[in-house]
Design goal:
With 286 residues, this protein is α/β, with parallel strands linked by helices. The protein is built from ten helices and ten strands. The longest helix is centred in the middle third of the chain and has 15 residues, at 90-104. Bound molecules: nicotinamide-adenine-dinucleotide (NAD).
Length: 286
């Protein structure tokens, strides 16, 4: 197996803490443990240099193994994991972080995210303070959140004086999140899109397939390109090597302004995932 150890072809953005994140990464939600090693290996071979996992996904061990076995220098791969809902709270966050790092087999994490706000538990501010402590110990590069609405972001900023570096939210053509993206832009928060292909549901959209035909690209490539040109960090998932490669091959073409506008007009504020204001799964175990 060969891995090109070189400056990645992937463009990156600078976060509000000065750290650098690749604009295209590889997500491993619902990738079974047994398939994770091969999928991450295929992604690293294709040229991805950012992997997005979570405690919930149950595959941190295999993600870490594939990264270590690639032989790539640690600082060439950007690793994200997420704190699960039942672990929110200051001390429990410190323990959960240790457990994640043990499974990953890494001594440094690039980005740690609070997976969901779980407002009902009222622990996300304390959780963020624990993230700050871990970062000050040099164990994490950047700290951020996921599925946070504007109100949650305002509370973290107001109570900790720090603006999260990243908010990873559901975002695809049917849920373009214009207001949240504008808030992020105003506050220097990077928008990271999960479910960037609508978990596959956007790929058959006639407007997307029409543009794909016009420019001789695939629907997945058109949508990933739309994310990149909007300025989103994007982390599509697949376990099929050909699709992993296809989703990476998005740096040699551009959508026109008109095509961008046509895709953005598909927004119907329709989610494929849960509503972050009411999502409390995991809380029962907290
Ligand atoms: P996605 O939008 O990336 O869609 C993945 C699905 O699209 C695949 O399972 C496959 O069916 C299809 N697909 C992918 N590439 C394709 C191609 N080239 N051709 C045809 N079909 C293709 O959905 P996702 O996995 O939910 O989101 C991406 C990543 O975001 C996840 O793996 C995970 O890392 C992250 N995520 C985070 C949260 C969160 O709460 N923070 C929630 C869900 C996902």
């Amino acid at each position: 197996m060969t891995f090109r150890s070189e400056t990645s072809q992937v463009p990156s953005i600078i976060l509000n803490d000065g750290k650098v994140i690749p604009k295209l990464g590889f997500g491993v939600y619902l990738v079974p443990e047994a398939e994770t090693h091969d999928a991450v290996t295929a992604a690293l071979q294709a040229g991805y240099r950012s992997i997005d996992t979570a405690t919930l996904y149950g595959n941190e061990t295999e993600v870490g193994q594939a990264i270590r076995e690639s032989g790539l220098p640690r600082d060439e791969v950007f690793v994200t994991t997420k704190l699960w809902n039942s672990d929110q709270g200051y001390d429990s966050t410190l323990r959960a972080f240790d457990a994640s790092m043990e499974r990953l087999g890494l001594d440094y994490l690039d980005l740690y995210l609070i997976h969901w706000p779980v407002e009902q538990a009222d622990r996300y501010v304390d959780t963020f303070r624990a993230f700050q402590a871990l970062r000050s110990q040099g164990r994490i590069g950047s700290i951020g959140v996921s599925n946070f609405q504007r109100s949650h972001l305002e509370r973290v900023i107001g109570e900790t004086g720090e603006t999260p570096a990243v908010n990873q939210v559901e975002l695809h053509p049917s849920l373009a999140q214009p207001e949240l993206r504008a808030f992020h832009a105003e506050h220097g928060i990077a928008t990271e899109a999960w479910g960037p292909l609508g978990q596959g549901s956007e790929l058959k959209d006639p407007t997307i397939t029409q543009i794909a035909r016009e420019i001789d690209r695939t629907p997945a490539q058109v949508i990933i390109r739309w994310h990149l040109q909007l300025g989103n960090v994007v982390i599509p998932k697949s376990v099929k090597p050909a699709r992993i490669q296809e989703n990476f091959d998005v740096f040699s073409f551009e959508l026109t302004l008109e095509q961008m506008q046509i895709i953005s007009a598909l927004d119907t504020a329709t989610r494929v995932g849960p509503d972050p204001d009411v999502f409390t799964v995991g809380l029962e175990n907290a």
